[in-house]
Every structure is written in structure tokens, then in C-alpha cells.
Specification:
single chain, alpha+beta, Beta Polymerase, domain 2, Poly(a)-polymerase, middle domain, 5-stranded mixed β-sheet, 4-stranded mixed β-sheet, 19 helices, 9 strands, 50% helix, globular
Amino acid sequence: MNWESPGLSARGQLEEVGFDRKTRDIKKFDLTFKRRDEEEETKRKRRRGRDEEEETKRKRRRGRDEEKTRREEETRREEQMSGCLCSASVRGSLLVDSHLFQAARPIFSNNRRHHASPSLGRYASTSNINIDSLSETLEDHRFRNRTVVRRVVQSKASTRPPIWKGIQETPIDRPPEALDRKFLADAHRESQKLQKLSKDLAKLNGSQIKQFYPNALKSSLQPADTPQSSAAKKTVEKPIQYNWLQYVDEQQSMDGYLRLGDELRAFEQYMSEIPQEKGMTERTILGVENVLRQVEDPDRRLRLIGSRHTGMAIRHSNIDLMIPIDDPDGFPNSVRGPSATRPKITTLQMDRLTQVARLLRATGDYSNVTVDKAHIPVVSAEDSATGRKVRIHCGIRPPSSLEYVLNYKAEFPTLRPIYIAIRMILETRGLLGTAQQSINQYGLTMLIVAALKLGEGRFDRLDLGRQFLHVLLFYSMTDLRRQGISVDPPELFKKRARAQGPKTDQPPHIRGQLSIGKKSMSRGNETLCLQDPADFMNDLGIECLALAELQQVFSAVGTDVHRKLKAWNGDAETGIETAPAAPAAATDSETPSLLGFALGSDYYHRLEELRDKAIFEFE
């Protein structure tokens, strides 16, 4: 018999129970790790999907920008062609009874032959009319009235004079042999007439050209690639000027930062308006008031807003005016009511501004009158007599941003000179304004205020040189692709930040940061994110897509100024130039400038012409 010990049987049972328990634990761990791997894989797929969605949005935006650029290029090319080929704008008694009037006919002789023309009369002879079928007659006329664009191909042995570059059109898919010889002869004859017309126009002086051809361009009166035109372009170019050095004290400071502060204050004085320019500004405002007096209440005057109200304006700043209107729902201006930009208010603003634009055009004293149908509509115009640009707004109350600018200007005495210098640094490089896909004037002011607040306590409040260099180096080293900027309270925040706790417990500026950060990231990493202290939900940098170029300019200028400061203080090696050598015609002073690279530019064609015009008008 097979006897089995009871003790061994119990031990075996215990071992079997322990083995089963270990097996269950191992399975449980495997299942846990498997679930964790599945969750991580799901998260990776979600992140990959979000990245692909952002890439798709970027491609769509890039495609829209390219399409917009292409359309603008086509429009500009059509305008150039119409200015070169079409002689409808040539008017005046000088050409009516002369051979120039006959030479001003369009080159395309077969173009729109069945339409009325000055040479054929109102009722020109028409052919190919099918009296039994109206549809066939219309189709035949549409075919004949289409503009046929041909290119004249000259042989190497041809002795014909070259046709202007502006006359050549996009070649069509047709071999040169298929062109009609009669058409080639007609095109050559028309080109000779056009060249003769240009020679006759060249004999006229500037006043005669402006009298008889107010829409003519000097570039259209001369071939594009002639030696005379290239020589004229070279003579137009002016050397870099350092005009602000005329306002620097003759006694040089031994400290580089004091010298930098003196140059910044001198540049502020150079960019400020003189009494004659202030008179031109007042004359422009008075002219607009006289025009609007026809439709506005005489007791309700225009309000001056913008940089000229806050004192941050420079000599060529726009003149911002606001037409006060009453709330259609009867809410007083002093009580907080519904939004001032609700659809009812926007419709009222558009109606009023459209009427204003119509009045400005009717006077003939303003050019480039346009109505910008943006979130806040505005009328833009240019006074032909003074050359000042005017922007007319319409609202219930002045924007609250004016109070913030006035408060920050009182808090930081160095704000205005720093703003003027950095504004001209960006403007001379084509990086100022939403039209350049960069930051506007108000956003730049808040950008400087945020940097001064974040660096408060490190410098003296009146140390202009160190504060200017701090602003440049701060934004050149900050990662603005991932971080946003808050002015009040002054801080940097992450664009991809997540909400902590319920939204009802969050301060208003935190909710605003979450909102504008999400919008900024949806437009890509190359967008500036700057929170407006007057409206936490408003992003002042949402239109600034040239973030990389902006930081490159800040870095280059900051590095150059810092190197010249070291050289001025004697910390750099001997032989390093402290400034680029300025030509004798640029400035009367031979003193080197610490801001030569930052602010050196051709100020004659940009500013001095307006100043000369103001002095001539008021003397």
C-alpha cells in the first residue's frame, strides 16, 4: 500500500495555494502595465493628432498668405500695365489737337472691336449678326471681344528698337511662327508711337506734367532698364544721417551710459514737433472739423485721441480723431453698460463713418480716403495740403487705453524717449504696424512698460541708458515663442498653461491669459502674445507674425550698443570703432554715435521734407 504522510500533503497544498497566488499577482501586474502602455499610446496618438492639426492650420495660413501675395502681385502688375498702355488718363488741351493724341491709342488694335470708341463713334459697325439665333450672335461677340494677349518676338537680325519692358505680357502657349505678320507690324508701329510720346513728355517740366497728367508716374515715362534710369536711381540714394547729434551737448560725458542717455534725449528732441509743425497739425484738425460740421452737431466737437492725446506722438504721427455718439439704448457714458463694440454700435459707426468718407472725398482736399471695416471701424485719409494722415473713429466714449498710457508715462519718466527710439528702430527696418505683420504703436508701448516693470529696482528710475539697453536685451533673450507677456501684473506666463481649479475661482487676468494663450498657439509658435492691461481678453500681439525678425533686430541693436558702450568706457580692445564713419554731409558733428547702427537712416525723404513744408507755409 502507498502510505502518504498527512504533513506532506498539507505542505503540498500550501505550496499549491502560494503558487496560484503568485500567478494571480503576476497576471494583475501584467494587466496593469498593459493598461498603462495603452494609455500612453492613446496620449501619444492624441498629441500626434494635435500636432498634425496645427501643421494643417499652418499650411492653410501659409497658403492663404501666398494666395494673397499672388493676388496683390497680379493687381500691381495689371495697374502697371494699365498705366503704361492705356492712355485714357492722358488729358488736357495740350494733346487734343496734336499728334500725341493719336499716339496715345491702346496697343491692342484688335481689342474689343465691337465696343464704342472715340475713333469709331458711339455706334460702330458690327458684323456676324445671326438674325435667326440670338445665342449664336452673343457667343460670337463674346469671342471677338475677348482680350488677346500676344508677345512680340523679335529675331536676332531685326533692327527694330526694343519694346519697353512694361509692355511685354505673359507669353501665351503658341509658337512664334503662328503670329500674324500684320499684327506684328501694327504692334511695332504702336511701340514707335509710344516711344515718340515718351520723348515728347520728357521735354515737359515737372509742373506741366503735373498739370496735364496728374496720375502719371515718373517711372512710366522712362524705359525700365535704360542707363539713364539706373543712373537716376543711384543719384536718389542718400547717405545715412545722424541728425540727432546736433542736439547733443558739446561737453562729452566720460561714462558710456550717460552718453547713451544724452543721445536718446537728443533723438527725442529731434523727433518732436516744432511750432510750425504744430500749426500744420492744428490746421489739419480745423479742416476736418469744417468738413464734418455739415452733418455733426456744432456743439459736439471732435475729440483728439491716440498718441497726440497722450503726448507720445512724434513729428509724423497720425492725427487720431473721434466723433462722439450717443448710445442707441440710452445708457449714459459714465455708467458701465453693454459692450461698446456690440453689433448695434458697430452698424451705427459704419453708417456714420461711411458718410464722413463720402464728405471727405467730395471736398477734393483729401486723398487715399478709405474705410477700414475692422472690429472697430475707422476712416483713413491724407490731407493733400499739409501731408498729414488723419484717422477718424466713432465711439460712445474714448478708449480706456488712453488712461493706461498716461498713467504709465507718469510712472516711468523715461518711457517716451525709449518708445521713440525703439519705434524708429523698427520703422526704419519695416517692422512697425499690423500692415507689416508686426506690432503696432500701442502694443510697442505696453511691451516697453512690461520690460521696465519686470526690471524695476535694478536701475535708477532716471537712468535712461541702462533702461533702454535692458529692454532690448530682455526681449532678445526671452523665449517669446512659448511665453506670453502680462503688463499688469507684470509677469511671463506659459501659452500652453492649464487651468488650476474651477474657472470661477480664477482672477480675471489668469482667465485672460488662458484665453489669449490658446488663441496665440492656434496661430503657430511665431506669434507674439501680449496681454492688454485695459482688456485682459485682448491680445495686442495676435497680428504680430514677424516675431523672429523682431527678436533679431532687438538682439542685433542691443549687442551693437553694448559693444560700443564697452569701447566708450575703455573696456574693449584698442582699435575698435565706436560708430560707423558718418559722411561729412550727414552731420555737422564729428562726434561718434552710440546709436549709429540703431537709428542711422535717410531722414531727408522721410521727415525733413514735411518739416521744410511746414516752415515754408508758416513763415
